[in-house]
Structure formats: structure tokens, C-alpha cells
Amino acid sequence: MHEFSVTQQIVQTVLEEAKKHDAKRVTSVHLIIGKLTFLGIDQIKFSYRLLVKGTIMEHSKLLIEHMEPTVNCASCGYEGPAKYMNDPSFHFSIPTLTCPKCSAQVTIKLGRECTIKNIGIVTNGEDGSAPPNDKGG
Amino acid sequence: MRKVIKSEEGESLDIELGADLLRENERIAEENKKFLKEHGVIAIDVMGSVGSGKTTLIEKLVQRLKGKYKLAALDGDLNTTIDADLIGRHGVESIQINTGKECHLDANLVRKALKEMDLDDIDLIFIENVGNLICPSDFALGSSKRIVVISVTEGPYMVLKHPLTFARADLVVINKIDLAGAMGVDPLEKDAKKVKPEVKVVKTCLKAGKGVDEVIKALDLPSLLK
After folding, report:
1. Closest Cβ–Cβ partner in B15, B18, B194 for A96
2. Average pLDDT for residues B77-91, to the nearest whole number?
3. Using CA atoms, how far apart are residues B90 and A81, in angstroms rounded to an integer?
4. What predicted TM-score, i.e. pTM, was given to this entire model?
5. Does residue A137 fall inside a structural domain?
6. Residue A120 in domain
7. Which of A9, A95, B98, B208 is the most buried (most CB within 10 A)?
């Protein structure tokens, strides 16, 4: 759902950041996508390849970390993976907000992100001129 | 002489960003909520599939509550003013938000609409989202509570099929119980509570006005409006 527009935002944000650092090209982009968002990884990868064409991101490596949910329980202090409802006959495994330890309702700490963690770039020189040892004088 | 470090041509850099793109909508939603609070207003947003009963729910709530609170409604749809007109005929300010092609409301659209309202003359705003059980879920609007409406005619597996949506609900309204028949309503209620133990569930036949008082009780408006 909405992967194309989210990926547009990702590409725009990376290009803006790369420009700030005077990048010649972007070599890598590391994303963290929470499993509790509606964002599909395959669709993001597909949209990314379309959107970076003709930009300095064109040959960049896209690394996507699919973040598992981490929940917090105020009742018993549990912090860790969410509890899942599993039904093999229906082929589902559904995350719930039930504490795996005490069954109270938990809050979500991780798993709802769409974060650009970091990017790798190759820069131009400070002012685009030849390196110091080529200068006359 | 000051030392200067310059990046050399062809130098590789690793830049930490940590930019969470879904945060932007969350940020605007939080601003909306704060803005409403400054004017003594709360908002309740209503999500659900097309035809589940969102507009009817808001109509019934408006009819019951307009004597007690100053009400208004924001209605989201791709186009037309049909739903805003339906609610507006009960004598409350009702603004339509037409999203064009977007399948959900977002905090920015709600912010635009709030600027058109005299909030000092309002206690409670109902926000009806676009008919869609999936996309609106990821976009907070600035409301104090979220109602998710499902109707039994959508079948017994709606909660299992949309757990992320039900994880965001404060109140689940199971509507059209008169049509439940052999399916019953209990499976939906049980699944909603498995996904989110503290969620409130109210069963309704909104067409006949059944369950509306229970919805009002479940919303606990006095605690929100104090």
C-alpha cells in the first residue's frame, strides 16, 4: 500500500542529503521498514529501481531491514517480541498486542518505522578542483 | 593556524540519517491534537470499509449528543459531498474533505479543514475516514479515540485479515447484527480482543438505533472533554 509514494519520499530525502554533502553518487541506502506498517518490501524495491533511474542513486545498493515488532508491557515489565496468533490451517501468523508473559495489553516500541538509517556516498572534491598536489606553485 | 579537514575527491562517506518518513504524519497529527486541546475540543475518528455504517454511526451519535455538546463533523471521501450532507442535515457544521484519488485521510488534510472551523464554538468533532479498512490505519489524524466499524455482512474473518487496523482501534463497532444469522457475532468480538485485549467492542444495528447508547458509554466522553 502506498509503497510508490513512500519510495518517492525516500529517494527525494536521500537526494537532498546527498546534495548537502556534495555527493557524486550514492552507493548504498539502508532502510528500516517495520513489520507493523502496511509497506511491502518487494513493492518498495520495485519502485526504488524505477525512481532512481537517471539520478545519482541509479546504481546504489538498497538494503532493507524488515524490523520485527518489539512490545512493552506496563503490567509486568516485559519487553521483547510480540505475541502472534498462529493458525497453520489458515496459513496465518498475526501479531497481537497481548503480552506473551501476562496477557495484558502492550504498547509497541518498534515495528512501525519507515526510516532511512544511513546512506553511503562518494563525494566530489571540496570545490570540484584537482587535488592539492597537482596545484602549481 | 586552524586545521581544516577536507573531503577528497572520490572519498566514500557513510551518513547516518535516522529519518523516519512516517513520523511526519505523526508529527502533524500530534500538532492537530494539541491545537484542538488548546480550544477545548476533542476529535473522534471513524474508520471502516465502504458500507460498514460509518456515516450512519456518526448520524446516530450526532442525533443523541447534539443537545449536550457542540458538535461538528469532517467527512472524507474521494469526491461528492454526500456523507457531509447526510450528517449536516442534523443541524451540525459538517465539512467535506475530498481527497481526489487518495484512499485515506491524513493529518495534513485534517489540519487544513480544522483551519476552516470556529473551534471556540465546538466541543467534539467526528472525523469520518474514507471507506477503507487498510490504508487509513497508518495515518493518525490527531483524534483522541479511533472507532473501527465493521459489519457482519463483511464476513467472520475481518479482524484476522486486518490485524494491524484493529491494533489501532480504541473501540470496535460490529454493525448490522440483525443480519448475523448462523455466523453469529462472537467470533469477531473474540478476535478483536485477541489482537488487542483492552479494546472495547459494541454490537449494533445502527439502522434501528440499537447499540448507540452503548457506543456513547464506551467512548467515555466526559473523561475526554474534561
Report:
1. B194
2. 88
3. 47
4. 0.85
5. no
6. yes
7. A95
